[in-house]
Fold:
Amino acid sequence: MNLKQLSHMLALSQTTVSRALNGYPEVNEETRRRVMDAAKRHGYRPNPSARRLATGKTGMIGYVLPTGTTVDIDPHFVEFLSGLGDYARSHELDLVLSPADADDQETTYRRIVANRQVDAVYISSPRPADRRVALVNTLGIPFIVHGRSEGLDFDYPFTDIDNEGAFHEAARLLVQLGHRRLALINGDGRETFAIHRERGVRRAMAASSLVLGEGDVCSLAMTEENGYRAARRLLERSDAPTAIACSSLIMALGVVRAVRDLGLTIPGDLSLIAHDDVFPWLKPENFSVPLSTTRSSIRLAGARVAERLAARISGSEQGARGEVWPVDLVIRGSVAGAPT
Amino acid sequence: MNLKQLSHMLALSQTTVSRALNGYPEVNEETRRRVMDAAKRHGYRPNPSARRLATGKTGMIGYVLPTGTTVDIDPHFVEFLSGLGDYARSHELDLVLSPADADDQETTYRRIVANRQVDAVYISSPRPADRRVALVNTLGIPFIVHGRSEGLDFDYPFTDIDNEGAFHEAARLLVQLGHRRLALINGDGRETFAIHRERGVRRAMAASSLVLGEGDVCSLAMTEENGYRAARRLLERSDAPTAIACSSLIMALGVVRAVRDLGLTIPGDLSLIAHDDVFPWLKPENFSVPLSTTRSSIRLAGARVAERLAARISGSEQGARGEVWPVDLVIRGSVAGAPT
DNA sequence: TCGAAACACCAAAGCGCTTTGGAAGGCTCT
DNA sequence: AGAGCCTTCCAAAGCGCTTTGGTGTTTCGA
Structure:
């Protein structure tokens, strides 16, 4: 059932039927009702390929997925996706993932924009002076950055959490509890979020004339194994830290294992605070010693990004507004005063 | 730069240029070279929207993503996606995720097929007599099932791992080691993979005249917390199992925690074998007691599914061939003879 | 009563590609 | 030399929608 058939059946022109269906004003309400009714009754759905050729609108949002045998997709991605999908579903949006060589995403961005494959894109895990952000900005496709870049000479729309503030608060608490030697087990140091978190810790320490030494911060991919290795390295030093801030729950698993392997205890020998993106399958309160966390639901962020993308597509959002969400600090058993 | 401009610039018809570019035989090789050359020089890329309207081919594969605030996307998904993306990238395929109400995926399947939004789809986490499989089969779109359904009155193409065989082997080993009371901490019991795994365990036990009691199998969503709860429930019984087979590494984390909480040890009091889908961020060899596993890379499965989908789209694969991959049994420190 | 504005509708021209149905020219073969 | 066949190209008709640029009919103010 296509438009021609439907309009023929209604003894109307395609123009009128199309307009009736798309809510244009220049059509009699009575006629519109007839058209709407017939469309529903015959299950008419405009062919998206045709509509898309005519309008350029696709009803899809895009994401360039870095791939490669050595590239691991972040497990956070799936939670973000949950939120995004949740919103997208209620607005009849689809998401298209365009796999790209991790080292050459630019080609793919150019392709999807040139081909008008999607109405908008989002960018995640941005880095300082991120070239992808600069690229999509000049290409002129609507976009939202999940996270922030830095040092770009233009403004752009983003949704981020207050990573610096979160880790500032966490470190401040630890310092207040008497800890003098802190360490940070961070994510990939090239990403902005990691930089912000480090900045937060440093700022809190500086307020008490403490410094985070070169060896006190580990920036690694967020795996359990890396958490373990980093913790071992830190804790086996003679001036081992008495408190650690950790960028992910998964790494925290490794930290806990290292602590146990070394015959130490939490929080007796080490206080630990980790960032929690809120996974349904791994909860900080269920750690053998309940884990204090800086908490922010990445799923909600996904929904929000989708919402803003939709708003940008429809034109109801414009400009380069960035929004920064506060992060909760949740205290549980894994922190205590510094050992004397 | 569109076809009309390009053909005009070459003083050829659109027909000829189109055919030259698409490798049709009825065009002079010399001409083809000229066309190809000009196309490359001017960066001509056929507009996919137009091509798609004309041919119906989209260059995309589809996946219906169940969503909802109470629905959690499996973290396995992201690993599968890695593999899929890896293959898709090298074949210029994109993946479109269509979010759907988890309780009504049928509408979405019908929509993407009716709208010809994708060339093929894959279905994951199938259940016995899965309606989605039946649906896409009748809708006539090329598809591959990742996993298997059961009790369908037709054959269909799938790629699955030998879940039954894997858990049969695991249980057989445990029985050989003298264990008499086994338990299974499984995934969602409505899914085929879970049924197969249970079947494997039962078969191995039956061979030694053992049975898996009603209370010896827990079928739950694969979270750390559920692993913990299930293990506690099992281990606090007077006739606690001396060996557990577990369907996921994440649940195994919970099992290990429960064992520790109860003051028991692995493998002294409990032998544990878990299924490992091979996550980069959580490895069985890094468990405090290295975990024995049935191992199968879900990432490779993703790549294989993509490969088969591409083959089906191009027509080079047909029929309902199902393939079942063997699973490795990897013995590590978490298994030992039954306590006496 | 007339002209203008408002209303309700339509024919046809895109959007940019593929594909059908030729057609012109050169070749072979008898 | 003429029939028949390749080879190589082309004009035009789709694909199914939106949108432009109207037309005919009412309504309304002056």
